[in-house]
Amino acid sequence: AQHNNNRCGTHEAAAWLEEAAETLQGGGLVAFPTETVYGLGADARNTDAVAGIFRAKGRPSDNPLIVHIADSGQLDELVKPYPPLAGKLMELFWPGPLTIVLPVQSGALSPLVTANLPTVGVRMPDHPLALELLRRAGCPVAAPSANRSGRPSPTEASHVLDDLDGLIHGIVDGGATGVGLESTVVELLDEQTVAILRPGGITLEKLRRALPDIAVLGGEDGLSDQEEAPRSPGMKYIHYAPQGELTLVEGSPEQTEAYIAARLAEASARGERTGVLAFSESIRRYEADVKMNMGSRQRLDEAAARLYAALRRFDEEGAVSLWAESCSEEGIGRALMNRLSKAASKVIKLN
Ligand code: TXA
Ligand code: MG
After folding, report:
1. Could you say which of 50, 56, 186, 290 would form a disulfide bridge with 167 (CB–CB 3.0 to 4.6 Å)?
2. Does 214 map to a domain?
C-alpha cells in the first residue's frame, strides 16, 4: 500500500518503518509523527523529492524546510563549523522541539530545502518512531508540517490524510503527537545571543534558565513581528487558519466571557453557525453550535496539545463565526498565543 499512488497507506507503527524508510530512500514522500506535529518527509538531498513536498502542500517556494536528523554525527556534512553555543543548545535540548538555524554546507542539501538561504534549520525530534525512521532512512530528512499550506498543522494521522491523502506515498501512524505546536526555531545572533524566530515547546523561560549567561531574545526584546518575518520566512504567511472567521479576544476572563457571549448571541440571531474555543473555567458561560474546550488555564500545555484539532473541528462542523479566548504568554502560552493570533482574522483587545 505504501507505493499506491491513489490512496495513501496507513501503517501501524513499527512494522511499517522499514518500508517507510525505503520509500524515503527512493525519493518518496512519507508523513511521520514527531513530538510536536506530524511532518511530511523527503530525502533532503533529492531535489525531485523535495519539490514533491512543496507540490503536495501547496507551499510557497520561498519558505525553507527544517531538516531532521537522528544523530549529531549527521551534522558534519550538512552544516559549516558552528559556534560552541549551538553545540550547547543541542546538548541541552536534543532530541527535542528545538530547531537551530545553522550555516549550511554548500552542496549538502537540495537548494529547495533552504530556499536559497545561506542557512538551514536543523532539529532532532524526540519521538521514537521519528528517530527510528530517520535512522533507517540514513539520510537527512526535510520535513515541514504535514498539512496543506495555510491549514492547521496535523496532530493526528487522520489530519494528515484529510489534507494529503492521494498526494503522498505513505504515513507512519503513531497516534496523537505530544506538544501539539511546532518546534521553537532559534538563530544565533552572536556567541552570546540567541533569538527566538518562532516560539514553541522549548520556551523562552526554559532557554533563559538553561543559559543564564546568554541573552535570549523573544519577540518583545526587539525582534518585532515585522522583523521576525524576513528572518523566519514562514512566519509571514497565513497559517493555521480554520475556514471560518476567527476572532481572538484579549482581556480579563470576565471581560472576555461577557464579550464573547454577546457576540455569539448576535451571530446566532443572524442565523450563523457559531463556534467558541474556550478554557474549561469559562466554557459553560457560552452558547454556541460548536464548543471546543482547551482545558484549564492552569494547564496551557494541554491547551497547546488540543489547539489544532479544535481548529479542524470547527471546519468539520461547518462553524463559520468563531471566537477564541486568549491566555497568558508565560511558558508554552507564548507559542499558543502566537498560533492563535495567526489563525485569527481579527484580534480584539478589551483593555
Ligand atoms: O515541529 C516542527 O518544527 C515541525 C515538525 C514536523 O518537525 N516542522 C515544521 O516545519 O513546523 P515547517 O516547515 O512547517 O516550519 C518551518 C519553519 C518556518 O517558519 C520556516 O520559515 C522556518 O522554520 N525556517 C526553516 N529554515 C529556516 C532558516 N534557514 N532560517 C530561518 N527560518 C527557517
Ligand atoms: Mg507548517
Report:
1. 56
2. no
